[in-house]
TrEMBL record:
GO terms for cellular component: cytosol. PANTHER family: DIHYDROFOLATE REDUCTASE (PTHR48069). Keywords: NADP, One-carbon metabolism, Oxidoreductase. The keyword Transferase does not apply. This is Dihydrofolate reductase. It catalyses: (6S)-5,6,7,8-tetrahydrofolate + NADP(+) = 7,8-dihydrofolate + NADPH + H(+). It comes from Flavobacterium noncentrifugens. GO terms for biological process: dihydrofolate metabolic process; folic acid metabolic process; one-carbon metabolic process; tetrahydrofolate biosynthetic process. Residues 1-159 form the DHFR domain. Transmembrane segments: none annotated.
Amino acid sequence: MIVMIAAAAENNALGKDNQLVWHLPDDFKRFKQLTTGHYIIMGRKTFESFPKPLPNRTHVVITRQKGYHPAGCLVADSIGSAIALVPKNEDAFVIGGGEIYKLAMPFADKIELTRVHASFEADAFFPEINSMEWKLATDTYHPKDEKHQFDFTYETFLKTT
């Protein structure tokens, strides 16, 4: 199964200057819980935004840069070739950035979205979720608190077509 996992604001903002524009510790925990032990597919800029590779995950980095081979990562030149690197019986999580999400949308079976209930200035955006192709299966609301500056909702969408 191909799962897109993201945190996006009400205006679909993902981040600015290759950084998230909010800090939600529970969302980080959920991301880790869902992706640990699986393949994670991302663009080069997303990969390079990490201080080091994420533990206990197989990284697949999409880039058109020739000779780009970060240690311990698989490298692909397209979303299709990235997906082809994932064994058929394995789940893969597409983790960004904005262009990679747009390219992955037709291949995805599921979207795990953390909807941040605010709008932000950004330079990377999550694609619109077409209600004719996707059905909201579950949603869980979390109000802001001492650790979370914004309200947010975990939303799981399943492809209908």
